[in-house]
Leucyl/phenylalanyl-tRNA--protein transferase
Amino acid sequence: MQQLPWLEPGDALPDPASAWGEHDPVPGLLAAGGALDVDTLVHAYSHCVFPWFSEDQPILWWSPDPRMVLQVAEFKLHRSLRKTLARFTQTAGCEVRIDHDFASVITACSQSPRTGQSGTWIVPDMVEAYMALHRAGHAHSVETWIDGKLAGGLYCVGLGRAVFGESMFTRRPDASKIALAALVCLCRRFQVKMIDCQQNTSHLASLGAREMSRSRFVAHVARAREQQGPRWHFEPVYWAELLSARPSGPT
């Protein structure tokens, strides 16, 4: 078993290929320590590394192999969600906003209970770090608003055409799914090929996400981060990227 590198603030992250493998204690773990400043986070995401840790742990850096990704062309718009979107787009007071209230979105994500988890990985230091990343123009919120109230949403990191999903929350039925569908529409509109989902879950798989080798994902991000990114603003016409296509799969 290889020893886990310990980083001091300002130290460069190791090569993602050196992350612990399937025969190590925690597959995908790359390093511990370091800092959560904007430059370090941008460098990390540019090289397919992300932080994930609990409040009683040091900063832990991850680069899992394989990587769960959603190819936006393969997003499964099930009939039930199609009906939800059709109602949403035709109902007064229902809209999608981007970066209108990032702070409320990440705070809500940090407070949302997770199946099988007693706490949250979005600890106060992470909230502060991603708020700074948002102010620097690299972190974005996609928000579902109903009758002037924030009903659900998600936040992500965007570097050029490399988009990394982070977390979502909902206060109304399907509100987080509406936000994800809006992000898919935005990505399709601006030729963003995939959204990183980090870890494999049955929920993500049901929406069309699948695993990709780390080496292929690293190669994709290296290209995508250098390309002109999307305009982080949502227009209702973008819904046509999904709603003009035929339904996929059962309810």
The CA atoms of residues 126 and 164 lie 16 Å apart. The first helix runs from residue 38 to 46. The longest strand covers residues 149-159.
